[in-house]
Amino acid sequence: MIYEKEKRYIIPFDDVPSPRIEMPEISVDDRRENFTEVETGFPEETAVKEAKRCLSCRRCLGCALCWAECKPEAIDFTIPDEKLELEFDEVIITKGQDNAFLPFNPELGYGTFPDVITDLQFERMLSPTGPSNGLVVSPLDGEIPARIAIIQGHTEDDETHLLSSLILGVNESILALDKTKELEVVLISPTCQPFQDGFLSEAKKVSGLKIIEGLPESVERKQDGEALALKYSENGKQKEETFELVVVLTKQKISPELVSLSKKLEQEMI
To answer: Taking Cα atoms as reference points, which of 113, 237, 109, 246 lies closest to residue 176?
Structure first.
């Protein structure tokens, strides 16, 4: 076999112990009318086996092709193995990008109605590289919604989460309103003092956005083809409004490994 770039010869491996594992995917029917990830990923055991298979050719031929192709010249065959102990003045632990979130009230309709999505899915939809090229559409029928509700999924949470999720909700509302003419967005969530002091007055100036300090209770579709009926309480009174799309503000789920590392280093995650 000839190495194409440098016209070198590479000895082929005829004793590959196992073929490449195919990435599992959900069925075509399960992909319809939703934003579910198509590739489900490998279980941990399978991923470890595949990594071991892919990252080791079992022996070095001494051909030095890796060295020849390394533009930064980071490969040095003369460096012996060694352990390094590094010291830092400060360690910053981030929450990562697993896109996993904590469970919230199932009565809010997520997983039941395709036109109830999470803030992460909505953010992806608003992206120019997203599934709809940045166009705001309902996953149910592909139509552009006239009314969108952005609701809090964790209504009894701490101020830190409420503040960050409210800011995200307002930012997503601004993006959606900028992309869609004659759109109305209603943000329903408890507020917190930091949000009221620093952001509420400016958020109320956003044209097309209405902020309601309330508690979302349930989402249902009374008849096929109808809009979603959202029930919520405001000032102790129960109310109901209809929307073509409902976005649930979620709370990120932190991996146990990061939680353990944070405790070990006595360092708060950001």
So the answer is: 246
Q: The dihedral of CA 103, 109, 111, 115: what is its sign?
A: negative
Alpha-carbon distance of 116 to 176, in angstroms, equals 16
139, 33 contact by CB (below 8 A): yes
CA distances from 229 to 107, 171, 226 (A): 12, 24, 9
> From the CB of residue 115, how many other CB atoms can be counted at a distance below 10 Å?
24
Structure token pair of residue 248: 């649930």
For the record, the structure tokens of 103 come out as 């469970």
pLDDT, tens digit, for every residue of 201-230? 999 999 999 999 999 999 999 888 899 999
**Listed residue (103, 143, 101, 145) closest to 120, CA to CA:** 101
Please say whether the structural domain 106-249 has been given the CATH code 3.50.50.60.
yes
Q: Is the pTM of this model over 0.85?
A: no
How crowded is the C-beta side of 171, counted as CA atoms within 13 Å?
12
Q: CA torsion 69→75→78→83, rounded to 10°?
A: -160
228-261 confidence digits (pLDDT tens)? 999 999 998 999 999 999 999 999 887 777 778 7
Q: Whole-angstrom Cα distance, residue 186 to residue 243?
A: 9
Cβ partners under 8 Å of residue 243, min gap 6: 145, 147, 148, 149, 186, 227, 228, 230
Angle at 145 between CA 143 and CA 151, to 5 degrees: 135
User: DSSP 3-state assignment of 10?
Assistant: coil
Task: Give 190's DSSP letter.
Answer: -
Q: Where are the domains of the chain?
A: 2-69, 106-249
Spatial neighbors of 265 by CB under 8 A, at least 6 apart, are 91, 93
Query: Two tokens at 77?
Result: 């065959």
